[in-house]
Amino acid sequence: MSPISFIVGIFATLAAAAAQPPVHPPVQPGEIRTFRDWSVGCDNNGNCQAVSLVPDEGGAGFDDWDGPISIVRTAGSDDIFKIRVLFQPGDMDRYRMIIDGKLVDTGAIVQGDYPIEIVGTDAEKVAKAIINGKDLVIEGPGGENITQISLAGSSAALRYIDEKQQRAGTGTALVAKGTRAFRPANIEVPTILVDRWKASTLAPETGDIVALVEKSRCKDERYGLVEDQIFPLGKRGNRFRALVLISCGSGAYNFSSAPYIGEYVENPHATSGWTFTPARFDRQPSWGGEGTDPLLVNAGWDELDQKLSSYGKGRGLGDCGSAENYIWDGDMFRMIDASAMPECRGAYAWITIWRANYRILEETAAPAE
Question: Which of 111, 156, 296, 358 is most buried as measured by Cβ atoms within 10 A of its Cβ?
């Protein structure tokens, strides 16, 4: 083979590889387990979170509860360890954490998502006290009750993290301690390749949407105030696309939408107009379920980054349900994160069960004619 033929063959192979669609791993969100008054779960990178619940035994309610405790631990060699408490701080500036009558931690209350956050070795010390304790109380500077946590099931939840992160039997385990050295699993977060089309403002008109609704699954589910939404997705050559969210029923705190992708081909010799198909997802939103046309709940759209969200509340308090976020990759929606809380027991800190990165592909310049 001549050198020129060899070089041409290499470029032909590279061009063929570039023309192939990117291969993405299947989306497999982690499982959430409940041990008495604690729920725990991990994402696809092995990062785990345990969250306290309102005690179930004896019909205990929210009288002494103002938010959960969340224990977060990463799976890698960085070993980020945090204990967070979610509550409304009001005017209080300091806290005291007491387990079974003994003071185990104290510090400042800050304004933000987590007014109390304990990290590093302090978090490990508190976790050990949680494992061996029965009841946890957090007080304000004047003895005010901030929240009261049952520790029933906390040891099992943290042992679950030890097992999922392959720490059991090592010196880094919280519960299942041993003498072996800890070797973090080599897990890569998937990266989604996004083929971004050029910006466009072309979108279906009212008549197109009316015709779509008449043929959709939502025709008989529309009552009260309905609001359909239309968002341009861009153009490539003479093709235009748009996202259409059809109102598909509502309840007291959940509003359903059926997502469709509209496509219009600009052709001076044809007047076919817009065509619509149900939007495709690499993992169906949990509200609609697999094997059916997708259904979003309390949908949100980030027009700048072309991200779509679904947030379904199990009840009005928002302490249970599921949420997913997707990126539009130019052809379908791909999940970039998901969180859930199956137990409706005061856990406003939902557990992350899937995460992915994404990268926008550089547009290839068209060859000169």
Answer: 296
